[in-house]
Write a structure and sequence with these properties.
The protein is an alpha/beta fold and 185 residues long. The protein is built from six helices and five strands; from the N terminus they run βαβαβαβααβα. It has one domain: Rossmann fold (3-Layer(aba) Sandwich), CATH 3.40.50. α1 links the parallel β1 and β2. α3 packs parallel to α5. The two termini are 12 Å apart.
Length: 185
């Protein structure tokens, strides 16, 4: 089973090494990990004329379309929620009606992270601008978890200290085990 490895891991200091590690862990579960950094076999020649950012987007969409499932690193990135590009990729796979899985290295609920990010005190229901804080007790925005659940996937989280936020793979391994179960059914 080919699984697309979505996440902000491409922004880490050594993204190639991270991709190699994640793909190696996938192989322990008899899954083939596909990284956004992987070259695309038979990339259309006309893409060479596109700006680099557009080539990357098309390549990633082609990789996603070639996979059986998607596993997304939804650890909060540069704010209280998951990386926006990762969330797009998750939605893209969901639109293809294939399973999506999510993992995060925090167990702090989305509403609590939002309150901290917006400097909202206590258990306030609105932020300083009077905007509602989404509070369903979920790990992230309801559309993210809703897509995962509706696809038959699971969301896994693990509590990590700050030093392990971008290195701990406990929740990732939980997702791989769940994905492998799907493969075996």
């Amino acid at each position: 089973m080919r699984v697309y490895l979505a996440g902000p891991d491409v922004f880490l200091p050594n993204p190639e090494a991270r991709a190699t590690l994640l793909k190696s862990v996938c192989s322990e579960y008899f899954l083939t990990g596909i990284s956004p950094l992987d070259p695309l076999p038979n990339e259309p020649a006309e893409w060479a004329a596109l700006p680099e950012a557009h080539r990357i987007a098309r390549r990633n969409e082609a990789h996603i379309a070639s996979c059986d499932a998607l596993i997304a690193n939804l650890t909060p990135f540069r704010g209280p929620s998951a990386d926006v590009g990762t969330v797009f990729e998750l939605g893209f796979m969901r639109a293809l009606r294939r399973p999506v899985y999510g993992w995060s290295n925090t167990t702090t609920p989305f509403a609590d992270r939002t309150r901290t990010f917006t400097h909202t005190t206590g258990t306030g229901t609105t932020d300083a601008d009077g905007l509602l804080i989404e509070d369903f007790g979920l790990a992230d925005n309801l559309m993210i978890e809703g897509a995962i659940t509706a696809s038959g996937g699971v969301f896994c989280s693990a509590k990590c200290n700050e030093a392990g936020q971008w290195t701990d793979l406990e929740a990732f391994r939980k997702c791989l085990a769940a994905c492998q179960q799907l493969e075996n059914t």
